């Protein structure tokens, strides 16, 4: 599938970055190799907070594949603290890795990285609609993307993949540790009164307290923090930006191959 670079909505032209994607591994691998790779990469995750004051916070998400097998990866960039949308990038293509529970990052990351490669603004933090270390092998998509982008990332998932927590109070702001055995792997956080919680975990280069802080700080009255919410809308083709909403058409494997050549 050939590149079609005609699209993209950006309201900022002052920050021109070519987002670099680190080449850490091959993508066309077996499920058993992918599981072993997750265990290996998890050892490189930083659980220390390396984030301070932020100007730009990104959200990333990917749509389900349609009847043609085509999915959309999206990244949106918002200016903090007002949460104004300043950049939207959407790339569509056919995921090259089959669906396996616990291995979604190998299926979804290439399209998200392709969208990130198109960014003009370099975000200070990424909030990912998915798991970070709250994962059986401690490497969900938020952690995987953090390593590949060498950037601070937070996992903010709508469901639990691993762990248990005690009941929460009904009020927004109520939280409880997400436990896996004796290890705290995240936090259940209620972001709206009487609404199901989200599950926050370390992605990369952030600690859990900072992750919870930023999820709450980016809230705008919805269950998901605003960067993740808008990324979900963008991936589904439902985000109104005032510009051309057409996605870039790309083959994720080709994009990542180009990235490997540049690094």
Indicate the proportion of strand residues.
15-25%
Second CATH tier, the architecture: 2-Layer Sandwich
> Superfamily at the CATH H level?
archaeoglobus fulgidus dsm 4304 superfamily
pLDDT averaged over residues: 88
Rough outline: globular
Order of helices and strands: EHEEEHEHEEEEHHEH
Major β-sheet, in short? 10 strands, mixed
Q: Oligomeric state of the chains? A: single chain
CATH class: Alpha Beta
> Helix count?
6
Counted up, domains total: 1
Can you tell me the residue ranges where pLDDT is under 50 for at least 5 consecutive residues?
A: 1-17, 253-263
Number of strands: 10
Kindly state the percentage of residues in helix. Answer: 25-40%
C-alpha termini separation: 23 Å
Please tell me about this protein's structure.
- With 263 residues, the chain is an alpha/beta fold.
- It has one domain: 2-Layer Sandwich (archaeoglobus fulgidus dsm 4304 fold).
- The protein contains 6 helices and 10 strands.
- It has helices spanning 31-42, 104-117, 141-149, 208-217, 226-235, 252-262, and strands spanning 9-10, 56-62, 71-79, 84-93, 125-128, 153-157, 175-180, 183-189, 198-204, 248-249.
- Strands 1, 2, 3, 4, 5, 6, 7, 8, 9 and 10 form a 10-stranded mixed beta sheet that branches.
- A hairpin with a 2-residue loop joins strand 7 (175-180) and strand 8.
- Helix 2 (104-117) crosses helix 3 (141-149) and helix 2 (104-117) crosses helix 6 (252-262).
- The model is unreliable at 1-17 and 253-263 (pLDDT under 50).
């Amino acid at each position: 599938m050939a590149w079609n670079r005609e699209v993209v909505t950006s309201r900022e032209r002052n920050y021109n970055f070519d987002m670099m994607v680190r080449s850490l591994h091959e993508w066309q691998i077996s499920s058993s190799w992918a599981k072993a790779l997750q265990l290996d990469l998890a050892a490189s995750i930083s659980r220390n907070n390396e984030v301070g004051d932020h100007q730009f916070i990104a959200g990333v998400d990917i749509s389900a594949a349609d009847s043609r097998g085509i999915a959309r990866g999206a990244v949106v960039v918002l200016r903090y603290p007002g949460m104004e949308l300043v950049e939207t990038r959407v790339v569509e293509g056919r995921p090259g890795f089959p669906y396996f529970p616990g291995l979604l990052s190998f299926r979804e990351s290439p399209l998200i990285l392709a969208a990130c490669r198109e960014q003009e603004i370099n975000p200070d933090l990424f909030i990912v609609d998915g798991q970070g270390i709250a994962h059986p092998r401690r490497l969900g998509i938020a952690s995987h993307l953090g390593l590949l982008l060498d950037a601070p990332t937070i996992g903010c998932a709508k469901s639990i993949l691993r762990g248990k927590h005690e009941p929460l109070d009904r009020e927004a702001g109520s939280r409880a540790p997400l436990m896996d055995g004796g290890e705290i792997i995240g936090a259940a956080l209620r972001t709206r009164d009487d609404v199901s919680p989200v599950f926050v975990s370390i992605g990369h280069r952030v600690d859990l307290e900072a992750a919870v802080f930023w999820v709450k700080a980016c809230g705008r009255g919805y269950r998901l923090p605003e960067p993740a919410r808008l990324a979900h809308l963008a991936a589904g083709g439902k985000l109104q930006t005032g510009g051309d909403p057409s996605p870039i058409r790309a083959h994720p494997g080709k994009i990542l191959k180009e990235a490997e050549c540049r690094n």
